[in-house]
Design goal:
The chain is about 20% helix and about 30% strand. The two termini are about 15 Å apart.
Amino acid sequence: MYEITVETHFNAAHFLRDYEGVCARMHGHNFDVIVTVRGGNLHPNGMLIDFKELKTVVEQRIDVFDHRVVNEVPPFDEMNPTVENFTRWLYEVLSEDLCGKDLTISRVEIRETEKYRAAYIP
């Protein structure tokens, strides 16, 4: 089994609904997004998937949030934009995007700060 990981980032603001504390107010983060995929079969060129191809797929999904208020962008206009919800959503949409590539996503992690992060591991 092989795994590869790409990391990218976006900058955005959000506020948490149904939360008592300072994060209920709008605030910003430099979000780091880390996605790991796995598979057992390499292409004839010796790659599971090109790093750049995987990074492009991830960035196509997160670019819509860059320099925006996450709460204003679907699905987070209705779903609470916690980092936990974000990792699960990203896993689900990336699974659709990578369907048919003989890959599975083994982990999606998002860091809000150097000290706070969440991961979704199916």
